[in-house]
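Objective 1.3, modelling of assemblies. Example input:
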Amino acid sequence: MTTFIQLHLLTAYAPSNLNRDDLGRPKTAKMGNTDRLRISSQSLKRAWRTSDCFYQSLSDHIGTRSRRFARDWVYKPMIDNGISEKIAKESAIKIAGQFGKVKNEKSPKDPLTNLEIEQLVHISNYEQQAIKQLVDLLISEKREPTDNEVKLLRKENSSIDIALFGRMLADSPAFNIEAACQVSHALGVSTVTIEDDFFTAVDDLNNNDVDAGSAHLGERGFASALFYTYVCISRDLLLENLNGDEILVEKTLKALTESTTKVAPTGMQNSFASRAYTSYLLIEKGSQQPRSLAVAYFNPIRSQDLVNDAITRLEEQRDKFDKVYGQCADSRYVLNSETGEGTLSAALDFVAQK
Amino acid sequence: MIDHLIFQIYAPFTSWGEPAVGEIRHSNIIPSRSALLGLVSAALGIRRDDNQIDNFNQHYYFAIRPFIANNSWFRDFHTVQAPRANKKQVWHTRFDEIRQNLLDLETLLSQREYYNDVYYQIVMSETENAPYSLAQIQQALLNPVFPLYAGRKNSPLSLPLSPILYQGTLSDAFIFADKHYQECHRQDPVIDKLVESTADEYYWEQINQEDHFKVIKIQLRQDQPISSERRQFSCRLQFSGKLKGSE
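Predicted structure (tokens):
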């Protein structure tokens, strides 16, 4: 029997334009014959898997952001231990290349600059340890790393990314991985009307002598909503995709859950700064057929107390389903920031437990 | 007496793929035969690359009753960013691919169609030598092996399938199904609205149903999977019409 982990989230976003259509307006859809604001599942997944939060929580929150790590962690210890300049340099470049594009300046002021990478990159605690182990081995054997050895440095991160969200290669279907995680489009729980922001930009050097007009006119759509998001993970498929590594499964589940509660899509953040944390999270586990609780909002909510009413409706829907169709989950955990029920760390422990 | 397995499908969005492949991915208003076979085989745990899938796909009949009062459809504008392919460069994660090389990113556009707010009642029956019994399938729908969805992975089911076995003619099965699910939804007036909406069109693929149904349309649909490996589909007949005595 498959164990399914279902996450139900309610997240409130202030006016924003998180996910746009081809005209640059916020995406919408209808439910219960009324317009709702929408964030596509693709947009949510992109935000989660490329967030620092996702990356960092894979390594228990301790990581290093660096461009020059190969210089400090590879080149320096090798030189200090009497390895030749050539081997130390080549090893550093090979290892740096796994994490980013290695600099290649023709006449750098400091010759070691070319052991750095172009962009800042986040290196997890696990990766730092793996690099250290590899460097120790290279020092004792006085050699450069092989291609396979440097690839292993990124194994954990790449396997987690692909195990959760899958991979489809039309050219070589043999390497396809079925995603263990299913994400719905996030839908607003109430009716939405997209508003238009008309804006102008003035020319600072125009002193109005000849022309008092603005230098630029623009328009952008925006809207605000409380979103219901639903995520369903097959724990068994995740374990299989991660080659039976139970510890990695637990880490992955925690990383995903934390990202879903804290990470917002990055669309137009500079204009709206609409980052938001989840107000309510319900986690369900069991082997019963998973079902989203979107019907709770089939009738749009019209109220002055949107968040609390949405939570009430969600819990009522969960209970109604249990009553009509039989128990829909074996165990549950609730995180409710309105009432102060539950904590994120307890939720992460619950989600990771077998 | 014919055995039937009845279940319901509802998701806020459904996207039942049409043969077209390209920039715009169209959706039909009712699930294709391949979609329903896929849903059932996912519940049973038959994998996409399993040898038995081609045999499985040759069995079972599906009949569909869509409830479509206030339905609408929309097109989701979809972009995918990726750097230009470079055989020398290996990307380990999506994070690396799009955050390390912002300036090299190129965008691919596509559009997907979805229908909103359509509720379905499905009646399934066995064919000769079917590999799984309807009772086994009922159990699988209650405790599926893989997560189920309405055409696309991002359209999770929003109602339990609530599968139930029934013996009788196809038309009686539909009448029974309606009564059964009305009863379920009486306790949840929200869904009641969906169930009470217009639903006088029935779709089926078994021949010789003229005693019970008035045939209005016969269509050829290219949704009978023949080879999963080569992704080939052949044509089949789809009958649609009204239930006799219900006009």
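The helical segments of chain B are 33-44, 53-56, 94-99, 134-142, 170-186, 189-195.
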